[in-house]
């Protein structure tokens, strides 16, 4: 069984740079890449008062598809085996959880995704993953 490199993608320039870096590592190691997109869980009572669960699910699926399709275009016709997965929840928690569940060799992720101001308000996903992950984490600027 080949080793897996988990690459969280959110469509940001940082996540695409991380993907390109992970591709270099995967080629050198003969590893597989697992692209992970985490969608926030918008199924809350306050949101569901105005938007149905089905509409929220459709929105999450469309967003995830757009992000993953873009990442797959970056991978292109490389000879790297790539798997994709979508999770719903808090990105830092879901990334660390997926790494553990899929027995990832490492996580390669962008140092930023949301932008400087929003990440200060919400807390840095990359910082939290760095401290929660059960495997090595590489941050790409």
Write the layout of secondary structure elements.
Layout (H helix, E strand, L loop, with lengths): L3 E5 L4 H17 L2 E8 L5 H4 L4 H23 L6 E7 L2 H11 L4 E5 L5 H7 L2 H8 L4 E4 L1
Parallel strand pairs: 1-2, 1-4, 2-3, 4-5
Describe the structure in your own words.
The chain is an alpha/beta fold. It is built from 6 helices and 5 strands; from the N terminus they run βαβααβαβααβ. It is globular.
In a nutshell, what does this entry contain?
The protein is built from 6 helices and 5 strands. With 141 residues, the protein is of the alpha/beta class. A 5-stranded parallel beta sheet has the order 3-2-1-4-5, sandwiched between helices.
Name the descriptors.
five-stranded parallel β-sheet, 141 residues, 6 helices, globular, 21% strand
Mind telling me the C-alpha Rg? 15 Å
Report the sheet with the most strands, covering strand number, pairing sense and barrel closure: 5 strands, parallel
Query: What is the β-strand count?
Result: 5
Mean pLDDT metric: 91
């Amino acid at each position: 069984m080949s080793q897996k490199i988990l690459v969280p993608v959110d469509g940001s320039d940082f996540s695409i740079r991380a993907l390109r870096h992970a591709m270099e590592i995967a080629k050198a190691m003969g590893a597989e890449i697992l692209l992970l997109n985490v969608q926030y869980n918008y199924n809350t009572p306050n949101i569901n008062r105005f938007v149905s669960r089905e509409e929220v699910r459709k929105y999450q699926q469309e967003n995830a598809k757009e992000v993953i399709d873009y990442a797959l275009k970056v991978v292109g016709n490389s000879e790297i085996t790539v798997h994709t997965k979508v999770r719903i929840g808090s990105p830092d928690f879901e990334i660390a959880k997926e790494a553990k569940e899929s027995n990832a060799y490492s996580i390669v992720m962008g140092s930023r995704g949301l932008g400087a101001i929003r990440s200060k308000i919400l807390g840095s996903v990359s910082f939290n993953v760095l401290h929660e992950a059960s495997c090595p984490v590489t941050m790409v600027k």
